[in-house]
Amino acid sequence: MRRNRSFNAVFILLAFFLVLFIGVPIFLTLTGSPPRVFWQAVLDEQVQESILFTFFSSLIATGVGLLTGIPLAYLLARKNFPGKQFIESLIDLPIVIPHSAAGIALLLALGRGSALGRGFEALGLRFVSAAPGVVAAMLFVSVPFLVDSAREGFEAVDPRLEYVARTLGSSAWNVFWRVSFPMAWRSIISGLIMMWARGISEFGAVVILTYHPMIAPVLLYERFQSFGLDYALPVAGIVILISMLVFLILRALNSNREDK
Amino acid sequence: MRRNRSFNAVFILLAFFLVLFIGVPIFLTLTGSPPRVFWQAVLDEQVQESILFTFFSSLIATGVGLLTGIPLAYLLARKNFPGKQFIESLIDLPIVIPHSAAGIALLLALGRGSALGRGFEALGLRFVSAAPGVVAAMLFVSVPFLVDSAREGFEAVDPRLEYVARTLGSSAWNVFWRVSFPMAWRSIISGLIMMWARGISEFGAVVILTYHPMIAPVLLYERFQSFGLDYALPVAGIVILISMLVFLILRALNSNREDK
Amino acid sequence: MTQSSHLSLRKLNISLEDFSLKNLDLEVRQGEYFVLLGPTGAGKTVLLEALAGIIPLQSGSILLEGTDITVYPPELRRVGFVYQDFALFPHLTVAGNISFGLQNSWRMADYTGDSARKKIFPLPCMRLILKGKSHQQAIKAKVEQISSLFKIRHLLERSPNSLSGGEKQRVAMARALITTPQILLLDEPLSSLDPETREGIQRELRRIHQELGTTTLHITHNFEVAAALADRIGVIMDGKIVQLGTPREIFRQPDNEKVAQFVGVRNIFRGRHFVEEDGGGILQLDGFKFASISGLKGIVRASIRPEDILLSREPLRSSARNNFKGRVVEISDRGSFSYITVRIPSLEQDGKDLNLIVLITRRSGDELALDLGQDIFAEFKASALHIF
Amino acid sequence: MTQSSHLSLRKLNISLEDFSLKNLDLEVRQGEYFVLLGPTGAGKTVLLEALAGIIPLQSGSILLEGTDITVYPPELRRVGFVYQDFALFPHLTVAGNISFGLQNSWRMADYTGDSARKKIFPLPCMRLILKGKSHQQAIKAKVEQISSLFKIRHLLERSPNSLSGGEKQRVAMARALITTPQILLLDEPLSSLDPETREGIQRELRRIHQELGTTTLHITHNFEVAAALADRIGVIMDGKIVQLGTPREIFRQPDNEKVAQFVGVRNIFRGRHFVEEDGGGILQLDGFKFASISGLKGIVRASIRPEDILLSREPLRSSARNNFKGRVVEISDRGSFSYITVRIPSLEQDGKDLNLIVLITRRSGDELALDLGQDIFAEFKASALHIF
User: Fold this and answer.
1) What is the C-alpha separation between C177 and C212, in angstroms, rounded?
2) CA atoms within 13 A on the CB side of B138
3) Yes or no, beta carbons of B169 and D101 under 8 Å apart
4) What are D228-244's pLDDT values in tens digits?
5) Contact between chains at B169 and D75 (C-beta distance less than 8 A)
6) Where do the structural domains in chain A lie, given as residue ranges?
7) What tens digit of pLDDT does each residue of D28-73 get?
8) What topology does CATH give the domain B37-259?
9) Which of residues 76-105 of A touch C (CB under 8 A)?
10) ipTM over 0.95
């Protein structure tokens, strides 16, 4: 019995350290500014605008991810083709690449110096120092989360359910909409939540591609650079609070659905 | 048959767009600098140092994550306790929080202005503008990946295997080392790889907590800010290449193990 | 042959990693309940999936009602498919599962007679939008009708996960049959049920088959199931059909030792067989002679079914020509019946003893008051000895 | 009682969400093979897990060899546990699985006699480091010994995932028995095997039990398994032991209708029972009278086992006192035997007909040339009618 008690004690101690390490900084940031200062920051129009801009950009990126990432995830889950492993690795790369390097890469590909960038600009789509740049940067760093999650969801759908649906007279499109997609929906939803959250959290890639118009993380950084910790703190508190709340609400909604 | 062919065509087209969007910038960055310039950057001592420093810091952070995250993951997978859901959400928060806000939070908690920071400094451990700060920032943003992956690994171990081991005379420690840990090893390893890779990719939190000594993503950013895209490009290429190679090698090793 | 051939497989070749079918020919007749019987891993599921168009053939052709459907996609083949674990859609209710096949509007036209509408709106998506209330009502009526047939009307709003194995089975059958397939393919649909449920469902299957007359191809590794359901049985082994016939034929006269073992014969011997002058046969083993009624000559195999052997405490004066005295060496109780192993000493000095396995009801066992080591008389008719 | 009580459960209460055990008392004797028989979901697994110390009790106590082990952790209880799916360690070889319990050095001391070393190095981790070659060799010898007993020596280097169900079963048994537990707990270890394998393993279990004499508590929902293995059976229903006895007792004289149905009796009636002057009994149903040998009076239930009823084409002149003429209404073939349903018309005008279910071997069925709708005579002895 002694041995078992020591097991629990050691594990709880080590785990507790980690929980504190994550929890304390967040708690301090949320409570670090006097309420008056915090409220002032909430009313600051620049803060409001940047937060809305961040959320909206990430939403657009997530939409593009939905449209293109779901087909990719389905193909990866169901088909075997040459180069499949290569594509799987490629899709995960943005998770590994340093964010500032990702920013450089996107700047190179979509900037005014590149053929692609000039082509898009002719179509009226400018990425550098413009809203589409924010969306592109967010999409680049966050879409792997959606693809991985959706692929797992599709892989968990027994292919025989799709076969049965085919024998019942459904075409491939029909089977996808009536069987595969609804059954993988939970994984897709968590992938979408993760992708959106990851987009909101991005800083490095965006700061290189599009400093202005400012998303909230960049605004926060600028205030820190220009005026110091005390001025950045309330903004950090607001940003953390909002992304935390939205994330928790989305997650709770999603896990409610799971219980049903 | 026509319908099925349209299904494949549309899906492949949409997926292909995403693959290009991820692949083209990476490809351009890797091939963007003339070989001579690229080689010069490789020989640049500051570049070499910063890369080694990045890798080493992330390794230390991963070690701390292993020591504290594994017990936490095991407890979350096996035990029910009040506040479990709160801790689960808390541990995932660093994924959602904007990186620059995370940097602010850590600066607040560990900086010279805080009681904690002064306490650590008395012990000779300085976080701001010092190597431990890099480790702390990396640990903060990357440990959720390890905890989530390890927890899934432990959850996949049938608790009855642990029960049987107990009836065979093993204590709780013994069961953990001989059954739970080796069986969850694959998930733990991929969690460790993800955590390490995520640590290397971090920029926003580190740049606020510890600008100097410089990790590679910060160096890259500084060169971009001071000298422009052309000077940042070879460094970005090197950083992407190395993190890509290491990640692919680790992943291949891990999936080899899976096949056995 | 008065019955027409409904499904024809011609020189089918399928080859997967760990399995292959070689030049398989098979004819299933209109309205027939055909059972493919074979050991697990004999590739029976693969064959069904090939018939449904899920797995591609290497070569050969499949004819259904005279139409070559070899290159048809699954949705145009009009086959019903029931998997071993039923593969119900977990995200739909029972009603949603059953009506699944009807919601595909280009098929629904067949049932509601809106082929006129089909001409006006050739693309299915158009019809999906235009599907009116009458359409939904027709589907509902159809679902209720088939649910009554399967006695699952009370389950319609439930989720498949909450159903018992037997209920799932009925739902899967209803889902497959509501689209009136030309042939119903059943992949061991009874193997995951416990024995009592299986019995009920078996009776149900028989009833439904009689009622609807849908041609059925059922695969199983369980001879009892096959015997209970089949009009004809095909025994498949190593990717080939090794015997074809009614359940009785296969049970009584297995073509070879493997089939015999598979359908439950336990006493198998090898020996030399002679034909006597009066036409009767003699099977000669080491130190044993059995009378038979076969006309075969030379080295043969022979089998006796365990329940064809009689046991008694006293030597019997009966018409049975094979009479032996032996000793009970093992009793294996199975609830309501028992397997008794009787060891019969060789007549030769150094011959090997022979073990006969005998099936008796527990009641007989009680009456005989069997005990290990006890002397016992075993007898069987010459006609019970099957030579092959 | 000459046999001592080995495992005693005293007023055990367990209560989980969807299940509870109430005041359970049970004694298992030294060396006995005790089978707990009950329907799925009767909480049998939970009981075993409570005995092994995995699930906590609400109240009550567990005594093993006279020691109260109620609060012991699992590793100190010395019970062997075999789960239904065997729960082999997938990351270890078969040898690694079997030797698992011996690698815990503080237990190993019991087998290699290094209790001296145990005193010198009190902490297990010390001994783990110091474990020498001799130690490993002792383990290896022990593993090979028990592998021979279970005939799995050729499997030692294999991975558990590559084993068949029967092989897994043997490995799980060997792993549990190598630590010489005081009691072996078996959780439906045969239910996931196919019938042929089960038969072999059953014989094996009997042999091993005879050889090692380990007290065994085996739970199952399968009466055939219980009948084949048990010294004594306890029937558990709704968290309570409802009947206790030898397999024969339970099979012949089930205490109530539920037990009767569970052990496979199919003909169950309800009626009024009288005792005649000569001491014989009469069971009065709607329009039927059955002779019995019971002395009960009043409203009773009665059962006849399907194999206790004889069928014949001609009226039999026999000693059986219950003779009826009926009609075959259903034949259900089961490979080597068949269930025949015989409908016996009521003697009264508006009485309900009676269905008797009869088990006969297929051989008898062939001889009788049974057919649906055919007239048939059914008879059974008064002693075959079980009144309860």
Assistant:
1) 9
2) 32
3) yes
4) 788 999 988 877 888 99
5) yes
6) 1-31, 37-259
7) 999 999 999 887 665 678 888 889 988 888 888 999 888 888 888 8
8) MetI-like fold (1.10.3720)
9) none
10) no
